[in-house]
Amino acid sequence: MQDNSLVFRATAATFLRDKAYLSPSDDVTATKPLYVYAPQHDVEAISDVLQRNQIPHIMNHYGVRDYRNKTLCFCGLAALSDLQLSFLVNAATAGAQVEALLDHLDKRLNFVEVDLLNADYLLDNSKRQNTSNHYPLLKRWMDIGVSLLLLALTLPIWLVTALAIKLESSGPVFFQQRRTGLFNQEFDILKFRSMCEDAEKDGARWASKHDSRITRVGKFIRKTRIDELPQLINVLKGEMSIVGPRPEREVFIRDLEKQIPFYRFRHTVKPGVTGLAQVRYTYGASVEDAMHKHRYDIYYIKHQNLWMDVRVLLDTVRIVLTGQGV
Predict the structure, then answer these.
(1) How do residues 265-286 score in pLDDT, each as one tens digit?
(2) Does the pLDDT at position 38 exceed 90?
(3) Which pTM value belongs to this model?
(4) In the predicted model, what is the mean pLDDT of the chain?
(5) Confidence of residue 29 (pLDDT cuts 50, 70, 90)
(6) Residue 241 region, left (φ>0) first, then alpha (ψ -120 to 50), else beta?
């Protein structure tokens, strides 16, 4: 009897994953309630997340009769009861849209709900929009092409910036700092120096919006993102990409990963000069800000494609030209 139950659970789980992947996307902007099925011990936490995002929902309801135009979501598939699995399988075969809750929220919110993150979601590559085997090569070509173009177009800016930095304060024009990149490998990121010399003589700390260590020139080049231009060299060296999660320092990562779920998952892709988090979220230098940015970084990793890269790049140009930023 136990063997039959295990076979049923495995078959049901496979069916639901495939059904969620193959079924057409539901109208995620609708106000109709979302039916969610989860282990009882997760119900309160899931309900809190859905309420926070103003999504009407009904938890573990088995009285549904008409499955047309209804979306049923599951969370914690491996921990669902046989009753829940059987109900979801029957609902899927009767015409309901059945999918994983995190996948549904991705489409609805355009970011990942960090509070619901789990290893299954992160390791499941079947739903990545980046299905083309050519994407990594195309992305690298775009990185090289955009970097060379920007280097040529911004050369006068480099010269003026270097002169302004030297005139205002002593110290080098460029600033190198160890950051953690692809597969947790550290590299030296290159930036125009925007702080006074020996800015970290008392130890490493995040830069804040009104940081006294930032020079007058530094404030301007940070606001206009000019300080990031030297990272184009990191891109040409293959250490970074034009678009990707921003690289962080290992000393901060060790602290952040204790408070933010799966924080190091960002290192499964190359870090970027700009990223989805940078164009969707305002500047911030706190753990809470890092948590919000993490939602967009994970979303980018799971859904990255060339068109998304182009959109992020264009949004970055808009932000720079309109003076938004630090």
Answers:
(1) 999 999 999 999 999 987 777 8
(2) yes
(3) 0.85
(4) 88
(5) very low
(6) beta
Contact 271, 247 (CB under 8 A): yes
Closest alpha carbon to 98 in 5, 44, 40, 34:
34
Do the domain assignments include residue 105? yes
Compute the distance between CA of residue 85 and CA of residue 79 in angstroms, rounded to an integer. 10
CB 94 within 8 A of CB 67: yes
Span 90-120, pLDDT tens digits = 999 999 999 999 999 999 999 999 999 999 8
Number of domains in the chain: 2
| 285 in a structural domain | yes
Could you tell me if residue 128 is inside a domain? no
Q: How far apart are CA 23 and CA 120, in angstroms?
A: 19
Same domain (yes/no): 289, 150: yes
Hey, what are 178's tokens? Answer: 């160890």
Tokens 């979306």, residue located: 71
Range of the domain at 218: 135-321
Distance CA 183, CA 130 (A): 19
Asked if 97 and 165 sit in the same domain, the reply is no
Does a structural domain hold residue 113? yes
- With beta carbons less than 8 A apart as the criterion, state whether 28 and 107 touch: yes
Asked whether residue 153 falls in the same domain as residue 268, the answer is yes
- Residue 300 exposure: Cα atoms within 13 Å on the Cβ side: 31
Contact 189, 156 (CB under 8 A): no
SS3 content of the chain, % helix, strand, coil (to 5): 50, 10, 35
Which SS3 state, helix, strand or coil, does residue 272 take? strand
